[in-house]
Fold this protein.
Amino acid sequence: MFGHLEPEDFVNLIEGCALPAKRKSHLDSCARCGTKWTSMLAMHAEVTSLDADIPEPDWTEFRSAVRDRLLSRSLQRASAVRRWTGWSIQPAAAWALSVFVAVALTTGAFLWNTERTSSPAGVLEPLPLHPAVESNDAETVKAVWSQTALFDELVQLGDAEEEQLRQMIASAQKGTPYRQ
Amino acid sequence: MERTVTASMPMALGNQDADAGLVERYLAGDTSAFDELMIRYERQIYRVCYRFVENREDAMDLAQEVFIKAFEHLPGFRRESSLKTWLYRIAINHCINHVKKHSHEFVEVAEHMSSVRPSVHAQLEEKEQREHFRRMVQHLPPKQKAIIELRINQQLSYEEIARISGRSISTIKASVFFALEKLRKLVKDR
């Protein structure tokens, strides 16, 4: 069973498009669709007639108003930008900035120099522990210990032993065999 | 006079090329391109705006704002659509936003008009009827009003309206139908 016309069918009719035969015959026979179609045509004509009543402005004035408003807006934008960036190019501000930079650099250099000279130059900082010692690596600890032990033995020589060592070195320098 | 010709001319590909050329010239600093672009579209845009506010001063203000917006954003115009479509889209969106912001004022004006106009123009029945119908059109939802204006008065194609509004052609056709249907009911109930 074929139903009533769809909204798009009415619009197509208004636009002057032909309906398919079945729909056309429905429109001819259906009072409801016929009434709707007639009233839609009337509304369409009314809307079309509205266009004639629109008062026209002075177009030259209109154009110049748009031009003026565009110009004033671009000027406003430009002055806003200048307000934020202009300070960097003003002479007084530039002088103030350069004086500030000079003072800051001088103060910084002075403070750095003072800090360096005030630290005690003659006092040696305690040497940090050998990292290997800190790490508790057994072999490294052993090696370091053996070197320390030899040094300690040399330091702890008695007078006689020291004399003996001195003679050994002297005879070695002369190339003669050492005799005890 | 030149306007009457350009406004009634359907947008063809040649017009699109001409628009593109004018946009290039305007962006390059050619001030005469501004006038040419305005002449091409001022009347159409003004009439769309008029449909939303129904008075000359507000329509002029709205149309000026549309052009200011358009010219300010012209460097970013990506030419994915024609200039005409782009301008109409700006106009419709701007008008719909304006109506949403000032909806109370419009109701007041409409009520005021309905109380004053009949006494002033009692003898001009035809004009009065047309005035009344105009007020009925004002009661349409903004989007339907826009579609009615673009199709019936500006005679844009359904394809163009679909591009402007971002809806399908079937939706646009249905909107035309429902707008006319609503008008019929409003007129019947008066």
Remarks:
- The first helix of chain B runs from residue 2 to 8.
- Chain B is about 80% helix and 0% strand.
- Residues 136 and 184 of chain B are 9 Å apart (CA to CA).
- Residues 1-95 of chain B form a domain with the Rna Polymerase Sigma Factor; Chain: A fold (CATH 1.10.1740.10).
